[in-house]
């Protein structure tokens, strides 16, 4: 059974069908990228899956269970973690605290005062572990807002991974990064995905990033899914090339 199974997902804004009858299933352990020209419906699709946006039609199943009507925090509690196109950290809090809060957010046991100091220390140690995983351990005490842009994006990845998600949704993880930062981030994400065995759904504009990370690529064009398959096949697909040439206006 796929971890994520979208059936007939549709979102209309007035007459515009931003996402139009999209089926998309993601199996455990897969990394799948969603690409498409500007306005193709990628962000709208992501927002519907994560419960941030109402669906006009269609269903989202997680592990076979219909979560279509659940709000974002309840979908998160079922193991869907996402990063945002725009970095969403608490800028005044140390990096490690940002991760620790993420750890607590979806685990009610950790919110209990019982255990007090010991539980708090364990939380901090675990948070530090995830910072180490993204190469930010030496900046644990730095307020998140003072980290370089690329490091803030990595902090978000640490926050998402700390939730031990069943499905990790990455929304343009290299957005706004320099060429060098992008290269390092792609290396790091590739390693993390392999080592943590996490299932990933990725939206990304940078084709180098897509082809480096995602064996499977789904293409949206004007809200519709026009291709879905192995990256090399999708790259060579004439319809996809035409959509890009016609769509990049
Ligand atoms: N709140 C809204 N109200 C009206 N139309 C919207 C709204 N949000 C998105 N749209 C429209 O829906 C379509 C799909 O937008 P969406 O942001 O999902 O595309 P995208 O593929 O993520 O684009 P980009 O690559 O530019 O981020 C676009 O035509 C957009 O203008």
What does this structure look like?
- The chain is α/β, with parallel strands linked by helices.
- It folds into 2 domains: 1-79 and 168-249, 3-Layer(aba) Sandwich (Rossmann fold), CATH 3.40.50; 89-164, no CATH class.
- Helix content is 40%, strand content 24%.
- The protein has 9 helices and 10 strands.
- Helix 3 packs across helix 4 (116-133) and helix 3 runs parallel beside helix 5.
- The longest helix is centred in the middle third of the chain and has 18 residues, at 116-133.
- The protein is globular.
- The mean pLDDT is 89.
- It binds adenosine-5'-triphosphate.
Task: Please specify the SSE layout and strand pairing.
Blueprint: E1 4-13, E2 16-26, E3 31-35, H1 42-50, E4 57-62, E5 65-66, H2 72-77, E6 80-82, H3 95-105, H4 116-133, H5 149-162, E7 167-171, H6 179-196, E8 199-203, H7 207-213, E9 216-221, E10 224-230, H8 231-236, H9 238-247
Parallel strand pairs: 3-8, 3-9, 6-7, 7-8
Antiparallel strand pairs: 1-2, 1-4, 4-5, 9-10
Helix pairs in contact: 3-4, 3-5, 4-5
Adenosine-5'-triphosphate binds next to β2 and α1.
Features:
globular; four-stranded antiparallel sheet; Rossmann fold; 2 domains; binds adenosine-5'-triphosphate; 249 residues; alpha/beta
Q: What is the name of the CATH topology of the largest domain?
A: Rossmann fold
How many strand segments? Answer: 10
- Return residue spans where pLDDT drops below 50 for at least 5 consecutive residues: none
The first-to-last residue Cα distance is 39 Å
Shape: globular
> Which molecules other than protein and nucleic acid are bound?
adenosine-5'-triphosphate
CATH architecture of the largest domain: 3-Layer(aba) Sandwich
The SSE string, one letter per element, is: EEEHEEHEHHHEHEHEEHH
In round numbers, the mean pLDDT is 89
CATH class of the largest domain: Alpha Beta
Give the CATH superfamily of the largest domain. Answer: P-loop containing nucleotide triphosphate hydrolases
Order of strands in the sheet with most strands: 6-7-8-3-9-10
How large is the radius of gyration? 18 Å
Proportion in β-strands: 15-25%
Percentage of residues in helical conformation: 25-40%
Pfam families: ABC_tran, BCA_ABC_TP_C
Protein name: ABC transporter ATP-binding protein
InterPro entries: AAA+_ATPase, ABC_AA/LPS_Transport, ABC_transporter-like_ATP-bd, ABC_transporter-like_CS, BCA_ABC_TP_C, P-loop_NTPase
GO cellular component, one term: plasma membrane
């Amino acid at each position: 059974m796929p971890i994520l199974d979208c059936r007939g997902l549709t979102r209309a804004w007035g007459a515009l069908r931003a996402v139009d009858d999209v089926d998309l299933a993601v199996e455990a352990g897969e990394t799948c990228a969603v690409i498409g020209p500007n306005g193709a419906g990628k962000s709208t699709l992501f927002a519907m899956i994560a419960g941030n946006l109402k669906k006009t039609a269609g269903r989202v199943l997680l592990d076979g269970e219909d979560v279509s009507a659940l709000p974002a925090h309840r979908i998160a509690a079922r193991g869907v973690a996402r990063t945002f196109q725009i970095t969403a950290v608490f800028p005044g809090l140390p990096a490690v605290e940002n991760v620790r809060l993420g750890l607590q957010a979806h685990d009610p046991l950790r919110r209990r005062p019982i255990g007090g100091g010991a539980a708090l220390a364990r939380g901090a140690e675990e948070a530090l572990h995830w910072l180490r995983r993204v190469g930010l351990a030496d900046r644990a005490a730095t307020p998140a807002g003072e980290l370089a842009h690329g490091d803030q994006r990595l902090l978000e990845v640490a926050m998402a991974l700390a939730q031990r998600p069943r499905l990790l949704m990455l929304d343009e993880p290299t957005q706004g990064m320099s060429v060098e930062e992008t290269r390092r981030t792609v290396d790091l994400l590739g390693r993390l995905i392999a080592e943590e065995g996490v299932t990933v759904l990725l939206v990304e504009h940078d084709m180098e990033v897509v082809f480096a990370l995602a064996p499977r690529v789904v293409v949206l064009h004007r809200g519709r899914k026009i291709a879905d398959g192995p990256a090399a096949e999708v790259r060579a697909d004439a319809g996809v090339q035409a959509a890009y040439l016609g769509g990049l206006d």
